[in-house]
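PROTEIN–LIGAND DATA SHEET

This sheet pairs a single protein chain with one bound small molecule, nicotinamide-adenine-dinucleotide, given as SMILES. Inputs appear in the order they were entered. The predicted three-dimensional arrangement of chain and ligand is reported afterwards as a token string under its own label.
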Amino acid sequence: MESYRVMPAGTHEILVGSGIAFRLPELLAAGSRPVGAPGRIALLTDRTVAGLYLARCQKAFADAGLDVRPIAIDGQENGKTLDAVRSVFEQMEDMSFGDSDRLVALGGGVVCDVAGFAAAGYRGGCPHVILPTTLLSMVDSSMGGRCQLNFRGHKNLLSLPSAPALAVVDPSFLQTLPKRHLAAAMSEIAKFALLDDPSLLDLLEKVPFPAEEVIVRALAARARLLGAASGVPHEDSPLSLGHAVGHSIESHFRFLRFLHGEAVALGLLAVCSSPGLRDLFGRLGLPVQLDGVTAETLVRRILRDYPGHAGTLRMVLLDRPGSYRVETVAAPQAEGFLSALLARIL
Ligand SMILES: NC(=O)c1ccc[n+]([C@@H]2O[C@H](COP(=O)([O-])OP(=O)(O)OC[C@H]3O[C@@H](n4cnc5c(N)ncnc54)[C@H](O)[C@@H]3O)[C@@H](O)[C@H]2O)c1
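PREDICTION REPORTED AS:
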């Protein structure tokens, strides 16, 4: 019997199970998937994850007869840039990366985004596989959709469609993930729960944390939301809930003060009416109040980074769990509208 769950993600399958990451060669070769038995593996990771898991991955792949070429990037949020992608292109070129070779991303959302860009761009596109190692990348990056880079200090300004060939989600990686990063992922999971599956919120504080169950339910919710968002502009997608505000906070502090998920937590508190959400985030160790920046500064940044048609702002709001809507605000009212939302967290 297979020891993993298979989640459909539109373009690819997501396999979820403890310990399955190190069975990647066998999973790639299993005929039903579009990946195929690879020639060589370019294993893209960051320095922290490399220190923890590279040797074990290399051994597992080498034992299966695979030639693994590691590519390490810095992996910090402020390094999620075109420079990182350029360095991956250079190393793919150095190894004469060919049609039968596969790019595998082993890491968090930063590594997965850089890998998505590299895979989309290298010689017109090459298949890539996601091996996420943070809770956030397990529930979010594994599904693909878009990959994004920061540009000139603006969060996720560059964006391309991303369609991994396969994602292999192994919750056992979470054993080494620092608590702060585990907590940061709870905001995105709470977003899926608020939009699609409110009872998932009850699992976030459970001890011990039921990682696999949360991941599977979060992925199922995200898949439904992605389906609902198909064909609609990004700002109208329910998945963008809280992100314009969150991104403005992340960028304002140059990606140094808040983790992505922490900034999203503040963004959600600004745009959601959900009793108990602030207390839940507080208990989870997420920020619930913001200082060190004015509403005016954040409003300017949001309007610059999310220029609607003719200055019209469109934003997803949640009136109560399970019920969201897209608000359209004419240009003259946009500043006042955003300031009122930000007053909830400032
Ligand atoms: N394209 C998408 O669909 C998508 C979705 C969600 C988030 N993102 C992006 O992902 C990024 C955030 O990702 P993240 O939260 O995974 O953070 P991250 O990639 O920055 O990783 C966080 C830190 O944890 C370390 N780490 C990773 N796995 C570890 C492990 N198992 N044990 C110990 N340390 C580990 C990393 O080295 C890094 O220092 C943001 O840039 C966000 O915009 C993209």
